[in-house]
Amino acid sequence: MRSQEPPVTAVQQEARRRRWRRLPLSLLALAVVLAGLLALAIGVPTLWRYSGESVRHYADPETHFLHGSIGSEVSGLPVRLWRVLPDLFPDAFDDQHYEAFGFLYAAGDEASRGDLPIGLGAREVRGVEIAWFNCALCHVGTVRESPDAAPRQIAGMPSNNLDLYAFIGFLLEIADDPRLAPDSVLAAMDEQGQSLGMIERQVWRYAVLPQVREGLLETRATLAPLLAEQPPWGPGRVDTFNPYKLLQFGMSAADLDASERIGTSDFPAIFHQRPRQGMDLHWDGNNASLQERNLSAAIGAGVTEESVDHVGIERVADWLLDLEPPPSPYRPDPDAVAAGKPLYMRHCADCHGYQQGERYVFEGERLGQVLPNDLLGGDPARLDSYTETLQRYQLTLFEDDERYRFRHFRKTDGYANLPLDGLWLRAPYLHNGAVPTLYDLLLPPADRPQAFVRGLDVLDEEKGGFVAPDCTPGEPLAEGFCFDTSQPGNGRQGHDYGSELTTQERSDLLDYLLTF
Amino acid sequence: MSEDVIFSPLAWRNLQVKNRLFRSNISGRFDNEDGSLTQTRINWECQFARGGVGAIVSSFVPVQMEGRIIAGYATIHRDDFIPLWQRLGEAVHRFDCKYILQLSHSGRQMDLPGVHNQHRRSLSSTDHQESLHGFLCRAMSEHEIERTVQAFADGAWRAREAGLDGVELHAANGYLFTQFLSSAINDRRDRYGGSLANRARFLLEVIRAIRERVGPDFHLQVKISAVDHNDILPWERKGNTLAESLQVCRWVETAGADALHVSVGSLFPHPLNPPGDFAFDTIASTYDAMLSAGTNTFRNYLLFRYSSLRWIFRWLWSRHQRGHAVEGVSLDEARAVRQAVDIPVISTGGYQRASLVREAIASGACDAVSSARALIANPDLPKQWQVGQDEPARPCTFCNKCLLNAPKNPLGCYELSRFDGDHERMIATLMSIYDTRPELRLPSVPPAQNP
To answer: How far away is chain A from the Cα of B447, in angstroms, using its nearest Cα?
Structure first.
């Protein structure tokens, strides 16, 4: 101990005595002050870092459609986690990235560089960048004019490659997988070079990743019983309303009537929204308001009343108003086309409008109106999946905001007559995609293929639509998905409007349809 | 002889005074570290004697080195100082002025302890430190009390030997006697604490010891605080009431005192003693001399130093002054004492106007008045009164800068307005008492000593 001069005065002696007596208190006060300063020094930047939200703005509306946020991140996964999932679960990804589930990457984007696929919008929420679905997820597909050609990405066509059922199934399955534990995820991030700071690492270990897992487990508990009852959707298809009932409105799968539990149908094309204004929208025509239909679709993608980004959604909607499909690449015999058009005008145009040269004409007595399924005879599963109960729930959405409150949803008794613009991109056909080609659609339902391969994008020059070889359910395929029309919801019946034509007439009509 | 009551002579039991104005006790650091007085002190006192006061109550004169309030004040603790005090007495007597030595002991109220005292806690009735500055102290043992009583008696004897005209016991304003008397300070459980009689025991023992030592025919007066008003800091207790002090005065009379000198306040300075302004700018530059003296001095320095904090102290200080005049601040208490006892009473408290003094004496509130600040400003105040002026042309402003300069600077008037803003003139006035004209003598050469 350092030797000290004796105190010179009594006051100094008293001060020294008090100093020793007060030492513990002083040290405690010092410790409290230091701890406070430390807490401030760490806390303020951390709070700043982990508060508020920010979203990336894309100047180009199409890029916004492909990558922009619509506010669905509340249901989503952290971007850093999106990047490591393929590395963590190589078996599920077949050693690829998200293309394994039919996701697409925009031109110039590289999954290996950490770019996210089309259809994911990202937003930084409380310091963590989260990505989840946007409109492009279900509405960007590919076509190839021959098996050797490079796929051509077309915004607005159905996402013919995307196997959403398989992807959601994968996410629900990994919810309790040990590889999703913080140690393993953080190690994978390190390996990828996604560097986390000391504090950020702790935040991820103790908050972000546990929350993700909890969210997945909760979703699994809600959704898995429903998905287990449904035949796999296959690529290009989704059950729009049933997951919506469970996730948005808190119903349980057991609450649903047996008749409503399978609502799987094709992703629709979303070209030319302006002329569709006022038509019965959705396959079953349950809503005639474009705005409500868009908002409802966003809710299907994971948006909630609280998280919704109306500006983001409306920007997409505006861009879609006049989005045109690329012209049909088919070059059928002009005479046959000329012969087929009158047939179409007589038998089809009333319900579907017609193609006039390069232009689609949205005119027809019953265009955009619901045709009772008693007349149409289509598979009723999709129609039945939308119920009056769901309608009642939907009418409670956005109650507090007159601009967005749902008013137009209704329960219908059939399917809507849709315009056929961009028809060449919309295979397989019918609402549930149960008929692979236009050729097959003109056949009597019994003659249509019983099981065929979906998920291919090579154009079928003869039949219109995508090449879809016959398959045997249960047998392994080199590529694609064997779609079995005998499964519930997959029925190929109905829309029996070509069978009374002669073979020649059907051929001429098909040639005309190929120009759409 | 004047018919003016102020200038009618006093003929007390052991003291005759030519008029009714006493110079109250006040001092600067004029003297030597060992307590011996200097020519400067003689010069200082003579200016008042020359000015015409009837008697001078000396400054605070400690009877022991351990009872100093400020190192640099003359003491009366050594016999070899008797000739020095004798010279002072002779000097004052030349102006037909009496000199009363104030026998004092600081107790815990020790502003600048000096080398003799800084290493130890000062002696007091209590172990509790002084409330305002935080001066440290310890309770005296009975033996120490006995020794101190003796020191007072010896001090009185030395004053008498020096040919001075009397002694005053400083039992007011927070010094050792007050520390025993005050119910707010004295927390003893022996025969010197508790009841009023016990608390007064020390003072009465000193009076009796002095009488025993100097006999009944040497003037002995006691200065007392009639009311303690000890609660300058709101959490302190108020201390002695007027009724308690009257009882003490009766006991003092019985014990053998010749007169009473009435003040107020259980510490010094006090809002009511001396009353008037509190010059923050002055004390901010002088209080640093006291920083090492107490445990609360730094706190106080901050309160004085920073104008944004001054309101705190101003509020503490001024709340006691409301409703009190500056001149004759404790005249009512003096009147009460005079009615309670049969010995003469001197009232202290900034007396400057002849009319007020005249009325105080004529009304029987007191027999004489004492003043200090008014005389520092105008040492010839009695002469001015005598020629009919009620108040001097340049009166004391009661700014208290004289007092607040004392820890660091020479005692004197620092009110620049009284010198028409002429700083040089003010300094010249302050320095006038240092005009010593010394006759320097060479000390004798001692025989060589081997180390």
So the answer is: 34
Q: How sure is the predictor about A482, in pLDDT bands with cuts at 50, 70 and 90?
A: very high
- Measure in Å the smallest separation between the Cα of A12 and chain B Cα atoms: 8
Model confidence at B171, pLDDT cuts 50, 70, 90, reads: very high
Cβ atoms of residues A162 and A105 within 8 Å:
no
B299 touches chain A (CB under 8 A): no
- In angstroms, the CA A85 to CA A82 distance is 6
Residues linked to residue B55 through DSSP beta bridges, in sequence order:
B22, B98
Beta carbons of B248 and B203 less than 8 angstroms apart: yes
Q: State how far the Cα of B36 lies from the Cα of A55, in Å rounded to an integer.
A: 88
- Rounded distance between C-alpha atoms, residue A214 and residue B215, angstroms: 102
Cβ neighbours of B294 in A, within 8 Å:
11
Answer for the pair A440, A450: CB distance below 8 angstroms, yes or no: no
User: Which residues pair with residue A454 across a beta bridge?
Assistant: A481
Closest by Cα among B376, B349, B369 to B44:
B376
Cβ contact A10–B119 (<8 Å) = yes
Q: Is A6 on the interface with B (CB under 8 A)?
A: no
Give CA–CA dist A285/B194, Å, rounded. Answer: 102
Q: What are phi and psi of B277, to 5 degrees?
A: -75, 165
User: Do residue B118 and residue A15 have CB atoms under 8 angstroms apart?
Assistant: no
> Which residues lie closer than 8 Å to B299 by C-beta, 6 or more apart?
none
What does the pLDDT read at residue A452?
Answer: 97
What CA–CA distances, in Å, run from A248 to A51, A222, A397, A476? 26, 11, 10, 36
Query: A8 CB near a chain B CB, below 8 Å?
Result: yes
| Of residues A177 and B323, more confidently modeled | A177
Whether A484 shows a pLDDT value over 60: the answer reads yes
> Where does the pLDDT of residue B1 fall: very low under 50, low under 70, confident under 90, or very high at 90 and above?
very low
Report the DSSP pairing between strands A120-125 and A53-55: antiparallel
Q: Which helix (H) or strand (E) holds A132?
A: strand A128-133
pLDDT in tens, A121-164: 999 988 899 999 999 999 999 999 999 999 999 999 999 999 99
More confident residue, A474 or B243: B243
Whether pTM exceeds 0.80: no
pLDDT in tens, B282-292: 999 999 999 99
Q: Which residues of B touch A17 (CB under 8 A)?
A: none
Does the beta carbon of B119 lie under 8 angstroms from any beta carbon of chain A?
yes
Count CA atoms closer than 13 A to B17's CA, side-chain side.
Answer: 33
CB pairs under 8 A between A and B: 22
Tell me, yes or no, if B120 comes closer than 8 A to chain A by beta carbon: yes
Confidence of residue A2 (pLDDT cuts 50, 70, 90): low
Q: What is the pLDDT of residue A9?
A: 86
Does ipTM top 0.90? no
